[in-house]
Each structure stands twice: as structure tokens, then as C-alpha cells.
Amino acid sequence: MSVITIVALGDSTTAGTPGFRSPIEAPPDGEGDVESQYAYWLMKAHPEWRVLNRGVNGERTDQIRARFARHVVAMQDGRLIVAIVAGVNDVYQGRSAEIVVRELEAMYGEARAASIPIVAGTIVPYNTATVEQNVRMRAVNAWIREYAARHADMAFCDTRAAVAAPGSPDRLLSSSDELHPAADGYRRMALALAPAIEQ
After folding, report:
1. 42-52: pLDDT as tens digits
2. How wide is the angle at C-alpha 28 spanned by C-alphas 24 and 30, nearest 5°?
3. Tens digits of per-residue pLDDT, 81-100?
4. Span between the terminal Cα atoms of the chain, in Å
5. What share of the chain is helix, strand, coil (3-state, %, to 5)?
6. Which of 33, 86, 110, 140 gets the most CB atoms within 10 Å of its CB?
7. Mean of the pLDDT values across residues 108-124?
8. Cα angle at 199 between 193 and 113, to 5 degrees?
9. What phi, psi does 90 have (nearest 5°)?
10. Residue 12 pLDDT more than 60?
């Protein structure tokens, strides 16, 4: 079976904050609790997958997009997939849903131009979000779902639902800092992402 490389691209919720610092943040291998990142859980469940954690805590979609060619396109060697979960920091910093959508669409377009299949994840919740911030996150997430449905080279994954508390879609099921999933949340993200990657 040929190895599939998955580039996990995004912000803190890809990096594994607060328990883990990604290899981009702490070269060469990252540091902290390895279970506090969805990349670890994907590889634990699928040893035939190579998942590269390319998350950076605090980055907005424009900053993630600025390194897309370096961290995704440059990795093209055999079977490559990119998983993108981004946008929470834009919302946190007051940027509009339209700006997030524009940057995500640009990243999806770059992947498509390079013939790299995309797994599009939704923005995960954080417990201190205001009503208005949640409205913007839901608007972006609805757009991601609709956009992915129109493109055959994309798979949609509701990473927000995967880590949300039952009956409280705008709150995390478990968190040590009210902003990021606990290790079990990252495990749940991996469980949700795996079938989308297989698809």
C-alpha cells in the first residue's frame, strides 16, 4: 500500500495548542503532548498515512495562505492531500466572514491548480466567543459546506461538530483554556477527518 501524505494546514487547532507546539513552531519535530494534535491520532489509526502538522498558533487565513506554496505545494511527491482548518483567528480579531471566505477560496484554488485533493474542515468553537463571533463562524462554515458540495475534488468535514459539547454547538466538549480542544477533542477531530480523507 502506497503511503499517503496529508498536510494538516491551519492555525492553533491544527498545531495542537495549548498542549503541543507544531514542527513549524518548534523545529524540527514539535514539542509537548503529542496526543494534543489531530495529526497524531490520524497516524495512530492509520499507520500507512504520513500526516505533517503544519499548524501555527494565532495565524489568520491570510497568513496561512502566504505559506501555502511552501508547506503544501512543495510537498508534492506521490499521493498528497491537504486538510485545511482555518478562520478562527480572523473571527477572533474582528475580521468579516467575507474576508475569511475569500482567503479560504484562494487556498482551495491553489490546491486545485496543483491537483491536490482537499479536505475542508469547519472552524471549531471556543467558549469565550460572543454571539456575533459565533454568527460569523457559522456563516463561514455554511459556505465551506456548500462550496465543498460543488467540487468533486473536495471532501467536507464538520470539525466544529466533532469537538462541540452535546446540545451546545458553540461550546467545546472539553478544554483546558476555554479556547482550544483538550487532547480528547483533537482525537475527535481525527475521527471526523479520517473518513473525509478516505473519501
Report:
1. 999 999 999 99
2. 65
3. 999 999 999 999 999 999 99
4. 16
5. 45, 20, 35
6. 86
7. 96
8. 95
9. -60, -50
10. yes
Residue recorded with cell 477572533: 92
Position 128, amino acid: T
Which band of pLDDT confidence, cut at 50, 70 and 90, is reported for residue 2?
A: low
75 CB-near residues (< 8 Å, 6+ apart):
5, 7, 52
SS3 assignment, position 56: coil
Distances (CA, A) of 31 to 16, 45, 117, 179: 10, 21, 29, 20
Q: Which of 11, 38, 192, 9 is nearest to 107 (CA)?
A: 9
3-state secondary structure of 124: coil
Grid cell 475542508 is found at 120
